[in-house]
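G., the chain you wanted modeled:
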Amino acid sequence: MKKILFLLLMVSSLIASPRAIVFDFNGVMTREPNRETIYPFLHETLHLSKAEFEKVYEALMSGKTDREFWRSLAKEKGVHLTNTWGKDFTAIMKDSFANPEMFALVDRLKQKQLPMILFSNMDAIPARHFREMGLFEPFDRHIFAFEIGAAKPDPKAYQILLQELDLPPEDIIFIDDQPDNIRAAQAIGMKVVLFQSASQLQEDLEISLEQLNHF
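Predicted structure as tokens:
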């Protein structure tokens, strides 16, 4: 019952037309990476065995594997990396991480002439890698915790967000997959949607965006 009331409260708060939509990144714009697309590439180009892949996978998922890491690994294994290896690997990682339904939804929302804002707690190194993948390109603004010195759900982070956008909280729809982050945004007056899936998010946003023509 509490969950139903919480969802009803969130949806009912979306009645007014927004002036910006703010998205979390990890868990919203990304999905659980597909190991079956990453491993074949690394096996073929770096001759990684399954056991070796498992050893580097944790560092890979945490975003700590920079270009120097892969050069060192290739040198250790006596493998020559082609000039296009970095570009090819970036493309593989982009396809593995990105949630295509969400990026399609953002593209559709942009047609409403609404600013699309990225607001994330990710660290600097993963942010650099995702930027190289082109996953930030659909967004008009990128606001990261490591740059502003505060992270969700700290109220200070949301106040900085409002200052950056120069908008009152009631003019913003905030989307996140973490309930604590949602509650903090709602507490200062933002309209909120707890992300569960792309289809669920679209249904909830239609309530607000129907005033801007049919979604």
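Residues 4-9, 11-15 have pLDDT under 50 and may be disordered.

Shout if anything looks off.
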